[in-house]
Design a protein that fits this description.
By secondary structure, the chain is of the alpha+beta class. The chain has a domain of about 170 residues. The chain has twelve helices and twelve strands. Strand 7 and strand 8 form a beta hairpin. It is globular.
């Protein structure tokens, strides 16, 4: 049944009006989170390009419910399309210690890794910083705080045998007291790249470095979609390599930079008051979900 996803999707379309009109009171952040359908075990991601074998130390949310966390709890701009999110099982994403991994996919073709050993990551950092600063005017005009890339929290590293790339950036988001950590993973596949971006506070760097290695280990492309499945006679080849995945001038030239910046999760501006304020509407949504459904008439 797609009823649950359909109803939640409709909620987003009318969310502002419904929440503004609500007079029934709210729910606590704990009650709000209790309605979410966390999953573990084997998770086939939307599109069936990749699979997660999620251990009990992690939990997964589908794209619809991930949107609730990203936009309504963490205060990120709307419009981000994801394949879902991962969260540690031992901490709530609605707490200061909570963190999550945003999963997306960019399908621009098979990416050659021949440039991996020749990349100057110091020069690349400068290009990323320039690109981010250049986008801040648009962010201000849209009513969102500025972003400033302060440096590498972990220098990029490419595992050529596993076709997996990871790095981390320290980000200043608005006037927050603590800088934000964006820890990035890229898994190369036959036709594109799986993008996994962890969002946390800089004080969690040591923890995230360890836990993201676990994420790397349980994330794989499905048979037929792995890097080794590439068929040079039939498959499209991307116009960029490893350097463009991390960012910089080459990414801007290929058009990839705009895509990757759109996937950037600015941080966790914990809007718990907003969660409580909209809680009654969410409560009514899930209450309707639990009511006996009418027989299907398909």
């Amino acid at each position: 049944m797609k009823l649950r996803s359909l109803v939640i999707g409709l909620l987003f379309g009318f969310m502002t009006a419904a929440f503004a009109a609500d007079e029934d009171g709210g729910m606590t952040a704990e009650q709000f989170e209790a309605q979410l359908n966390y999953q573990s075990g084997k998770i086939m991601l939307p599109g069936k390009k990749a699979v997660l074998n999620v251990p009990t130390t992690f939990r997964y949310l589908d794209p619809v419910e991930s949107k609730l966390i990203l936009e309504n709890a963490w205060g990120n701009p709307p419009g981000k399309e994801t394949l879902g999110m991962l969260f540690p099982a031992d901490v709530s994403p609605l707490t200061e210690e909570g963190w999550g991994v945003v999963i997306t996919y960019v399908e621009d073709g098979h990416i050659s890794d021949e440039d991996a050993d020749a990349i100057n990551y110091d020069e690349m950092l400068t290009e990323i910083q320039k690109g981010t600063e250049g986008a801040n005017a648009a962010r201000r005009d849209a009513g969102y705080p500025e972003l400033h890339i302060l440096g590498w929290a972990e220098r990029p590293f490419y595992d050529k045998s596993a076709r997996k790339l990871y790095w981390a950036k320290e980000i200043q988001f608005g006037g927050g007291a603590q800088n934000t950590l964006n820890y990035d993973i890229r898994v190369l596949g036959r036709e594109g790249v799986l993008v996994m971006n962890a969002v946390a506070g800089m004080n969690q760097l040591a923890l995230i470095k360890t836990r993201m290695q676990d994420v790397l280990a349980f994330t794989e492309f499905t048979p037929g979609n792995t890097y080794a499945d590439f068929n040079e006679s039939t498959d499209k080849v991307a116009t960029y390599g490893i350097a463009a995945l991390v960012g910089g001038a080459l990414a801007a030239k290929t058009g990839l930079l705009a895509k990757l910046m759109a996937l950037l999760v600015a941080g966790k501006k914990f809007l718990i008051l907003a969660v409580v304020a909209v809680g009654a509407a969410v409560k009514r949504l899930f209450a309707r979900k639990r009511e006996p459904a009418a027989p299907a008439t398909e």
